[in-house]
Amino acid sequence: MNDIPQTNPIIPKNFAPVIKLFIIGFIILVLLIPVVWISTIIKERYDRKDNVAKEIASKWGADQLVSGPFICIPYNTVIYKQDNTGNEKTTIITNYLHITPETASITGQVESVEQHRGIFKVAGYKAVLDITSDFPKDIELSSLPNGAVLDWNNALVAFDLKDERGLKELTGNLNGKALTFNRSANVLSVSSPMEELNDLRKKNKYAYDNDSDEAITFKFEAKTPVDISTAKAQINLHLVLTGTQQLSFLTSAINETISLQGDWTAPSFTGDLLPDARTVDSKGFTASWHTNYLNTGNKQFWTSKEPTLKLSNLGVKFLIMVDAYQQTTRTLKYAVLFLLLTFMAFFFTETVTRQRIHPIQYLMVGCSLVIFYLLLLSVSEHLAFGWSYLIASFGVVMQISLYSYSILKTRKFALQVGSLLTAIYAFLYILLQLEDSALLVGSISLFVLLGVAMYVIRNVKWYNQE
Question: Residue 409 — very low, low, confident or very high, per pLDDT cuts 50/70/90?
Answer without folding.
Answer: confident
